[in-house]
Amino acid sequence: MKFVLEVDIDTPHDKGRTVAELGRVLRYWGGNLHHYELVPGDGSAIYDSAYREVGHWKIVQP
Which helix (H) or strand (E) holds 26? Predict the structure, then answer.
């Protein structure tokens, strides 16, 4: 199994907010994985705390 995660959080003037937001994204979406079978083709959009799409994750063939 290959798990691919891409996140683009653009807060160029506030590094602390960027770090906090990325931590929140990783905790939330990592904790949400049990809802998926984790087979090739599974995936989901990733949203930040303001519900803006900031990336996605997916399972692909290695």
Answer: helix 15-31
> How many residues in the chain?
62
Extract long-range pairs of 29-38: CB within 8 Å, 24+ residues apart.
29/5, 29/57, 38/1, 38/3
- As a whole number of angstroms, the distance between CA 55 and CA 48 comes to 9
Extract the tokens encoding 44.
């989901």
Model confidence pLDDT, tens digit, residues 9-51: 877 677 788 888 899 999 998 898 999 999 999 999 999 888 9
Strand locations in 1-62 (E): 2-7, 43-47, 53-60
Measured at the alpha carbon of residue 53, what is the angle toward residues 5 and 17, in degrees to the nearest 5? 85
Give the domain ranges of the chain: 2-60
